[in-house]
Amino acid sequence: MSKRSHRPVAFGAAAFALALAISPLAAPPALATPTPMHQVARPQHEVTPALTPTALLATKPKPPRDPARADVLVNKKYPLIPRKYVPRLTEVPGTGIRLQPQAAKSYKKLVAAARRDGVDIRLTSGYRSYAVQKGLLEKYTRAYGPAYAQRIAAKPGTSEHQTGLAIDVGNRNRACALQACFATTKVGNWMAKNAPRHGFILRYPKGMESVTGYAYEPWHFRYVGTAQAKAMAGSRSKTLEHFYGVAPAPRPNAAKPSAPKSGTLKNTKKTTANLNLRRGPSTGTTILKTVPRGSTVRLTGKKSGSWVQATHRGTTGWMSSRYLR
Ligand SMILES: [Zn+2]
């Protein structure tokens, strides 16, 4: 883990604004061009051997399924057993957020260690029940459609947050909250370097979407225990999936270009200029890409002033409606 964490973090177009998390739909659906994902995403038979040294295969432990265990594997392919599992929980003092007791204890130590380094960590999410996760996915599905929603939020019964072992963290000033650029913030940096020492691993590393099933989330950490975190670092496993030598989680539909559905044709427009597709409905937001003049874009139906939300070749963002016909 530490190897990766020292690497400078590139972001930009791929700065996904959205979380698995908690946050209200404040951020526009920064369906940034998933360039890093596409570059790294290869068929499974190429990915697995490259990241799983053959020597380790013999000793590969089987993925534990008991969600009371800190080393449990939970992903889209390995749901919780039972699906409506409720862990033993304790509140992280002063946060209103609950975690499994051992995770809460380690988190408190982690926070204290960060504070000694002058870093103030804010806990933004921990345990989420089956019902809460269900509501979250429904909310995202309504806002962004099922394919994109499933890239950023787990189906109920498959979320690590339901184990009470996963945390989302942020900066006190909320800098880059739930965005890829969080990795470059004080807390993001500190966590990447130090979280494994306290038994927390970065669960959805950059470029691992085809393996974990999720876009890069530098704010989401998973308690696995210090021994396991150390073992993972030692085996150079970038993800729990690699560590357990299991097949990657299914690749989300959103990564594939989808054919326009019938009835969407009336929602297509042509650009009358080279037009910037931005993260949000203002010129102050990041440019996700520049759409060439004469391109066809599909409108999602969302509007903000003279801005409309549109999709161009799999990238969704906001553009000025003045240059659309
Ligand atoms: Zn999370």
Which outline best applies?
elongated
Order of helices and strands: HHHHEEHEHHEHEHEHHEEEEEE
Number of helices: 11
Cα radius of gyration in angstroms: 20 Å
Helical residue percent? 25-40%
CATH class of the largest domain: Alpha Beta
Distance between the termini: 49 Å
Strand order of the biggest β-sheet: 3-4-6-5
Largest sheet: 4 strands, antiparallel
Give a list of the ligands. zinc ion
For the record, the CATH architecture of the largest domain stands as: 2-Layer Sandwich
What average pLDDT do the residues reach? 80
Count of discrete structural domains: 2
Q: What can you see in these coordinates?
A:
The protein has eleven helices and twelve strands. Residues 1-58 and 254-265 have low confidence and may be disordered. Helix 6 (130-144) packs across helix 7. It has 325 residues and is an alpha+beta fold. It folds into two domains: 2-255, Muramoyl-pentapeptide Carboxypeptidase, domain 2; 265-323, SH3 type barrels. A hairpin with a 4-residue loop joins strand 1 and strand 2 (97-99). The protein is 27% helix and 18% strand. The protein is elongated, with a radius of gyration of 20 Å. The longest helix is centred in the middle third of the chain and has 16 residues, at 101-116. The site of zinc ion (ZN) has 7 residues, from strand 4.
